[in-house]
Amino acid sequence: MTHPIPIWPLALYFVLVVGLVAAMLGLSYVLGQRHRERATARFYEGGIESEGSARVRLSPRFYLVAMFFVIFDLEAVFLFSWAVAARELGWPGYCEVAVFAGLLAAALVYLWRVGALDWAIVRRHTD
Amino acid sequence: MNWWAEQPNTIPARSVEEENVRRSVILSRLQDLLSWGRKNSMWPFNFGLSCCYVEMASSLTSKWDIARFGAEVIRGTPREADLLVVAGTVFIKMAPIIKQLYEQMMEPRWVISMGSCANSGGMFDVYSVVQGVDTFLPVDVYVQGCPPRPDSLMEGLLLLRDAVGSERRPLSWVVGPQGTWRPPMPDLRDAHRPARTSLTVLRSPDEVK
Amino acid sequence: MIAAAMPPVLDQVKERFPDVTVQPVLDAIPTVWASAATTHELLRYLKHDVEAPYRFLYDLSAIDERLHRNRGNGVRSDFTIVYHLLSYDRNEFFRVKTPLEGEYPTTRSITDVWPMANWYEREVWDMFGIRFEGHPHLVRILMPRWWEGHPLRKEHPSRGTEMPRFTLPDDKMDSQQGQLRFRPEDWGMASGTEDRDFMFLNVGPQHPGTHGVLRIALQLDGETIVDCVPDIGYHHRATEKMGERQTWHTFIPYTDRVDYLGGVVNEMAYLAAVEKMAGITIPPRAQVIRVMLMEVFRIMSHLVWYGTFSQDMGQLSPVFFTFNDREVGYQIIEAITGFRMHPAWFRIGGTAMDLPNGWDRLVREFLDYMPKRLAEYDREIMRNGIFRARTMGIGECTREQAIEWGMTGPNLRATGFAWDFRKAQPYSGYEQFEFDVPISKRGDCYGRAEVRVEEMRQSLRIIEQCLKNMPPGPYKSDHPLATPPVKPRTMHDIETLITHFLGVSWGTPIPPCEVLGNIEATKGANGYYLVSDGSTVAYRTRIRTPSFAHMQMLPLLANGGMVPDLLAVLGAMDFVLADVDR
User: Fold this and answer.
1) What pTM does this model have?
2) Is the ipTM above a cut-off of 0.90?
């Protein structure tokens, strides 16, 4: 029978970490000088007042990039889970995951060609 | 000119020795350590108004190199900067912006007024120029010149460093004595006068050194 | 330029517009007075219909004539709008003057003929209170929005000490900051489309990338710039008003500080006009000294541009190297003129003093040192992959757009147009020097960089020729209006002593006339339009700077790009804020 792994070092480590973080935050809170003038808490934007908010409805391009990342990231998760059991799954498993990766590669090529991966808008000269 | 908005010396004027005697030894040693640390890493704010900024930038580069004094880390945002060098003419349109930037700087902060225009309006006694940045900001060191040579700016910076090294600032805003004490600033014109009045033979401009 | 084969333009103009009057002027620029009703048509005619048309609106400014004595023309005018046009094909300027009467007159805007007149008319409104009907958005440009009064009018106080003492209490600060806030609806900007909102971001006034106190209000769609509005005036130092207060001689240090990297180049622009007015011929030695110093300052200005541009593109080292090279150049400047940045060394009639012994050694060292440095920067900067990726294809403009919007200097040459005023209208002996005018066909930021780099090499060539062929002789003219006169003469007889005394204490009286002096400054075409009424002080000093026109082009160059491309465009444009706002 194996020895049970003692839990107290982990607990001690946890306490030390919490203590260190609390000390750092706490000391930096109380040390030093403070001043509060009228502009101190305002946003910094080159010394001038900002116009409008930064919490605006952004262009859908940002959303698209995030979605593509999630999709291809999940593909990687599936590939990792196949890789863990690759020997057990043998050649049939390899063929299946190759089909899976090939479909996703085709999707990638489609996105590339249709311009969904282009970030910058190509400029036209208007005059 | 004493027109600034806040008074740095909220403790009555005392000499360095009196000040040391008043505080306890440990506290004053600790404050010395902190002042030494502050003095050797004063980070300027990336703020240039006019021609003096080019000479300030020259002082950052290799030949003059204020990095030797720990001042090469220029910060782009006032929250991280210690030193505001008002390099150039203070325009009336820019005045509220400079004030806003100064208010957004965190303590400890210092101001060097660089160049004639920032000191007093300089040669621009015109409707659009504020006649001296000390009409609305407290200034620690005035560096004269139009523009000051990079070594003049470095001399001003060294003066400020010496002053900062002897400063007493509160360790915490929660407990302890509040208020900043600063030693009186020397007037270099009087300090240099004996050497300057003894210069009777000046180099002719017709020969290259 | 086959200017001789063109029919004289004044005859054509008088034929088409019989009611204009021609004014003979000293600088041989065809000058006509046209009434407010005729001016618009006349300008359109000159821009489109005349042969070898005047496509470039060089300058648009105004003069407050209410105190003007000795005008030399019989035209009644309280305010005069002055239009300067340039025809590249003819290589000739044309001046149209429109007299206006009344305390706050109104005239028709020419923004439908030249869109670039937009900022110039805003400046005239700001400085004089003259309204332009048909202007898209006539608001102040140099003075803050809350300013009352129009500074270049003769009744407006000139000195800061004549005005109430400056204070900045909290309420004043709040109200001024509120007025500085950008209002997109004022500029016709939508706040969003139906599926997304735009973010409005201020770049500046304090920003490392704007190289000074410039504020650009961006309308952003994500990271892409939909539109941008450059807001200038944060660097307005009233140099033109100062010109009405300083004598012809004591104004020279103020010219230094207009393009503060250019040093003596600014002085040359001013003196090109003054010496024409005074009728002074500059002796050859003074000319060559001037050319040599101007080319040294051209290299110095381009080195600042080079280092800071590469720093904007992300390279942190080259700025240190280029500033070190500037120190080598400063050895020359300091030895000759005594100061580094603002030498104030040229004088009316020549230079302040002769070259010191040993100047050739310093120049030789500089000439031996620089080519290797430029070769290194070619490797480090111009062939760097990231630099190229960030500048090629960015900020493109065609030659027609450049001429339409008043681009001059290296920016214009980057569109493939080999125009350099040093070759086209030589001054100070430039016609005797051998140098090429570099161009680039690219028209983008990289092209502008290429042109400036090659310009530095050509400047070295010119300095080499100055070094080899420095003529002996006087460094200042003997003309009575040369200021200050050469000292030995004043010790000889009472007449020259009196002239010297009056010239130094009271000022040099320049005879009544008006002259445009234009040179190829480091940033582009820099011109001083000076009006004298016979006194020791200029009546009107108009400074036409290249960076003002370039800054107006910013939306054209940066719209549609991303925010980092804006920084590339700003860097490649090579402006100096004092040049924009004066």
Assistant:
1) 0.90
2) no
